[in-house]
Design a protein that fits this description.
205 residues, alpha/beta, Rossmann fold, two-stranded antiparallel sheet, 5 helices, 9 strands
Length: 205
């Protein structure tokens, strides 16, 4: 699952957004609020962080095939869809969260999203049947999920040529061993959260 931080130093809070909503900040559903479940570990990405991320993705999001590996509230997935992504696949294992995501997809009459109820690491350990241009990795903190997720994406063929990979993680996670072909494009830290954007390029020789 995924996402929430307060805007300043208490970025790692597990409390849901005030009122239990996420807000779409741009695109065809700009200003639209969608309800989220109040469950432990759910951390919807703040508007400030989300705006920074989608500014980074401004030239790439339109018509992109996207994968949200730990979609939780769906904050990043719905923002991508609002900004005219071609298709978004959402992975989420919590049944109650999946139910809410399905209801929100119905409310917006979305027909270009694929919601999969599954453990993300287990699902990504299968050989890919399609490739993605943009991948969001924003798992629950302190669960050691970032590394196996990155490994599975790389090793099982989920990344399209020149794919962009967004990682949102606790700032003290310093032991990632990412593929040499992943080039760091952008990086920012706020409070106890670090977020990074990589592009898959050619492996160094």
């Amino acid at each position: 699952m995924s996402r929430n931080h307060n805007t300043k130093s208490n970025e790692k809070s597990r409390k849901p957004i005030k009122g239990g909503f996420i807000r779409l900040i741009s695109g065809k559903w700009r200003g639209k609020k969608l309800p989220v479940k109040d469950i432990e570990g759910l951390r919807p990405t703040t508007d400030r962080t989300k705006e920074t991320l989608f500014n980074w993705l401004m030239r790439d999001i339109n018509d992109a095939n996207c994968l949200d590996c730990f979609c939780g509230s769906g904050s990043l997935a719905f923002e991508a869809l609002s900004r005219f992504a071609k298709n978004v696949t959402l992975l989420e294992k919590d049944k109650s969260v999946v139910k809410q995501l399905r209801e929100n997809l119905t409310v917006l009459n979305i027909n270009n999203a694929n919601l999969i109820e599954a453990d993300s690491i287990r699902y990504l350990s299968q050989v890919a049947t399609e490739q993605y241009n943009i991948v969001f990795i924003d798992p629950p903190f302190h669960k050691n999920l970032v590394q196996p997720c990155c490994d599975a994406l790389q090793n099982h063929g989920y990344l399209a040529d020149n794919a962009l990979i967004y990682i949102e993680r606790e700032v003290d996670l310093s032991t990632l061993n990412l593929p040499e072909s992943w080039q760091l494009l952008k990086e920012k830290s706020t409070g106890q959260v670090t977020y990074q954007l990589y592009r898959q390029g050619q492996a160094l020789t």
